[in-house]
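ingest -> validate -> predict -> emit
validate: passed (alphabet ok, no gaps, 214 aa)
predict: started
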Amino acid sequence: MKFVPIFTRPNFDFKNPPTTVSPFTAFLNHLTTQLSVNLPTTIHRIIIPNLLSPALYPAEASRPEYLLQFFHALRALLRKYPAQLTAITTLPLTLHPRSTGLTRWMELLSDGVLEFAPFPSTSVQVKAAPGASTVHEEPPQGLLKIHRLPVFHEKGGGGGESSGFGDDLAFTLSRRKGLMIKPFSLPPVEPDSEAQQGGLEHDHGKATKVDIKF
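emit:
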């Protein structure tokens, strides 16, 4: 495992960064070199976490001319080395929502697009349905939305809805089992026996069979 930082030191001199050099150039050169010097049987797995997060990336990394050029170059390498290279990128949607043009362009240049929508921490825990297995299962932590998958069929493929992935999915992340994705469904509503019993009472006492038939 190799860590390739985008920049090696913080900008404490408060000088404007060079506008002619992309911050992703060094990473692309490193990746191209690794692919050329290693054996064709070596698998390279690239993980780009929290892309455009100000805690990890400089401000100029969010410029469209740099970011989209980086995605085009990475996509070209994935097409050139389809059996040796795979890449996954995460993007904080709280800072860059899907309604922005830059995020939409990144999605168009990606083969698959998944959205993890975590539940609020104050949400009610989902209870197990009656008659379910007694094995302890961790409650889902959020919903998984599939916007695009690299799956092709007679309709063209690519889209989540047209590929048959429109069902509600939930994810759970734990140290013991890792990331697990399962179908999500709300538990059945338990009947309120007290409310039903109270609705069958009137001024003269509890309702009888005659009153119920009426």
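Residues 64-80 form the longest helix (17 residues).
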